[in-house]
Design brief:
By secondary structure, this protein is an alpha+beta fold. The protein contains ten helices and 14 strands. Strands 3-4-5-9-8-7-6 form a seven-stranded mixed sheet, sandwiched between helices. A five-stranded antiparallel sheet has the order 13-12-11-10-14, with no helix packed on it. It binds biotin (BTN).
């Protein structure tokens, strides 16, 4: 009922009367009034004017379950959502409860006290600056086939952000899955997998998008950006989250968590690492190469200075002109 009323108020050009709502949903006007009262308690600013009705003025700035679900178009992803004020890490929280939670469960928090990044790094963020969330997946594939999930998630977030911020800014991808804007990182993704007897028990994909940050610590300022630094457009975190989850379920259902021709092309088109000179480390030795292709398992294929080809699986890659 809450989701339905919000949906109507959002689509309305002005006021919607209590009578219209009660007739439309076949409930009493008192039931409509009670629902509106609950929505106000959740942070919706709804104006009520006698003889006119209700008008939605603004939606809450933090992720709100009702709001998120009013935009969500999935069968599974995001239907079970846990919203926390503060947590050590949404990935850790979800991993600890994974055995008792349904696939597609999402955990989001207004802040993390021990947010984790790739390669053992820390992911920091002040209260409400980030949209950070993790999703629990149980793909029916062997662990050796799971390599594409990480880059596919980068592509999914990049495309969802491009649609959301269309006309404001566009994102690309630094291999494997950093989402970047004008060569600076706006979103990081950490994928963690638990396996048993050559099968995947679960995968937790953790996504952190810099939304409201106005600046960054000097160590990372040269390579980090946020939505607020790229545009004045207000970000509705509930909608952005719903858009990403909707795209994620659609794409994973279509491709079975692996690259197909269409998604490989889309990934490569968005990948700012390809055709660039890159630097990576092999056994503490610095190697310079040209990034030439992406394998079906999501590895970066590089051509060394002597012409030989090599696959880079993970680890830090510095891309000329990016970071
Ligand atoms: C990286 O680029 O190094 C990956 C950063 C991933 C951050 C997200 S925020 C939500 C989830 N919880 C975590 O502890 N990490 C991920």
């Amino acid at each position: 009922m809450k989701e339905k009323i919000i949906h109507v108020l959002k689509g309305a050009d002005g006021y919607v009367s209590g009578q219209q709502l009660s007739q439309f949903f076949g409930v009493s006007r008192t039931a409509v009034w009670k629902t509106i009262k609950n929505l106000k308690a959740e942070g919706y600013n709804i104006e009520s004017v006698t003889n006119k009705g209700y008008r939605l003025v603004s939606s809450p700035e933090i992720v709100n379950e009702t709001e998120m679900k009013s935009y969500l178009r999935t069968k599974e992803f995001g239907h079970n959502i846990i919203i926390l004020n503060s947590v050590d890490s949404t990935n850790t929280y979800l991993k600890n409860l994974a055995d008792s939670l349904p696939s597609g469960t999402v955990v989001t928090a207004r802040m993390q006290t021990d947010g984790k990044g790739r390669l053992g790094r820390v992911w920091e963020g002040n209260m409400d600056d980030n949209l950070c969330f993790s999703i629990l997946l149980r793909p029916d594939i062997a662990p050796r086939e799971a390599g594409a999930i990480t880059p596919l998630c980068g592509m999914i977030v990049s495309r969802a952000m491009n649609e959301y911020f269309s006309g404001e800014f566009q994102t690309t991808i630094k291999w494997p899955n950093d989402v970047i804007v004008k060569n600076k990182k706006i979103c990081g993704i950490l994928t963690e997998m638990s396996c048993e007897d050559d099968r995947i028990k679960y995968i937790v994909v953790g996504i952190g998008i810099n939304v409201l940050n106005k600046s960054f610590p000097s160590e990372i300022a040269y390579k980090a950006t946020s939505c607020a630094m790229e545009t004045d457009k207000l970000v509705n975190k509930s909608k952005l989250l719903a858009d990403i989850l909707t795209k994620m379920e659609k794409i994973f259902n279509k491709c079975g968590y692996r690259f197909n021709n269409r998604y490989m092309k889309l990934y490569k088109d968005a990948c700012a690492t390809l055709d660039k000179t890159i630097t990576f480390y092999r056994d503490n030795e610095e190697i310079i190469a040209k990034a030439t292709d992406i394998s079906s398992d999501g590895e970066l294929i590089v051509t060394l200075e002597d012409g030989t080809e090599e696959k880079v699986f993970s680890g830090e890659v510095t891309v000329q002109g990016i970071y």
